[in-house]
Batch of 2 targets.
Target 1
Amino acid sequence: MVDDSTYPLDDVFHALADPTRRAMLSTLARAPLTVGELAAPFAISLNATSKHIKVLERAGLVQRSIEGRKHVCHLDARPLHAGMEWIRHYVTFWQQRLDVLESLLVEEDRAAAKEERREERRRTNDDSDET
């Protein structure tokens, strides 16, 4: 059985996968804009802009309101929280593994230093035996 609760997260990551859509979200974080204003900085058609906006709407990241003939886009950052929680789980996962790796490397360095001191004592003893 497929877990339908994962689809919103999939939609969020899909929306964030495109640099144009990420730039649109950054722009909308400053202020709501019309579709035309949102399209202006990009060398893409209004049709392409509309497709990007639909992907962002499907992910729940953009809400569109109609004010007369204008379609105004507003950022809704709430769906990003689920993505942050998903990523946070893996930050913890990797942090734990890196902590274990660090412990192993520190222990390896200690063992190597101990072996070096042992070798140095051996050489010192060998040198004193020769004199």
Target 2
Amino acid sequence: MKTNLSVIAAAMILVVGTSTAMAQSAEELLYDGRNTENVTTYGMGYDLKRYSPLKQINTTNVKRLVPVWNATLSNLLGEQAQPLVYNGVMYVTNAAWTFAIDVATGRQIWRTEVGYDPDTPRVVCCGVSNKGPAIYNGKLFRTTLDAHVVALDMKTGKQVWKEKFAEWKEGYSGIVAPLVANGLRRRRRRRIQSKTSWPAPARRWTTVCAAT
């Protein structure tokens, strides 16, 4: 019987270097959640509690919330990403696109297509989706369905670099939201093999490499 291979990336940490005056600092990432103007990490902090100290919206007034603007994400599939917000700009990802949106007006600042082989969804697991980006030092980092990590310029959306970390034809994919820490870029991957049923036994391992 033919073996079906599926993969989900579980975690990835990017190496960070020295910051510049116009960029996100390691301190801003470390204390995410305390500065309520920005959301700089997936989970709103390295503890992933997704907690905000804001009190303007509470159980008594939440029912009065109404839409102010809406924006299309040009995607017919599911949206699972947690947006990040920095200096009035929201950064959103899905499997097909990366967006920068003005939080005050909903105006699209830029949109960058991911681009992957159309056969990729046939061999990877867990849906055609993306969990969100990471930001640091003027760059946005994201994973792709065909097992790459991409860095984009936060101002323009232009690609700075792209790195392949596995072979999607062997069942590997990248949907995880990266985390940035002062250390090594660590990619934790899970490879699942199943002949007859789901869930299947999984093997996990971590690869480490430098990044700039």
